[in-house]
Amino acid sequence: MPNTSSDFELLLSRTKPEDLANDPIARRAFSVALLASDFFLPVEESAEEQAQAGGVSLMAVQINEQAHAMLFSSEARLRAFCSSGTRFARVSGVSFFPSLMGHHAILNPGPSGLVLAPEDIAEILGKDFTQPHQQCGSAGHVHGPGCSH
Which CATH number fits domain 38-139: 1.10.10, 3.40.1350, 3.30.450, 3.40.50? Predict the structure, then answer.
């Protein structure tokens, strides 16, 4: 049975950053849960603009002068952080995380948000973090904050 949003929310509430940093088994279990969960991603454009651009531009926040794509574990968390009327996409972790290769992200921005560096995203996917992200113009490309266009 796949993880539901509430299952992942429960895991988030019980996971401490030091557990992830010090326990490779906990870190791998968290990675599996990330890939098995759905995420809510605030986007910049309307559906028409997305179709014309051939992709989606994610909203980002600056952390230490670096843009981080915002991911939310629930619609309620997204609504609590973003302004009213913010457009978003709901995507599965397994289909979306490969698009984050080479980018920075933050899960549930705010004081208890989980910052994900490119090497963290690569580890979640079981890949080498020096591998470049999916090229712009590729089918299904998501324009992340690290894209240069």
Answer: 3.40.1350
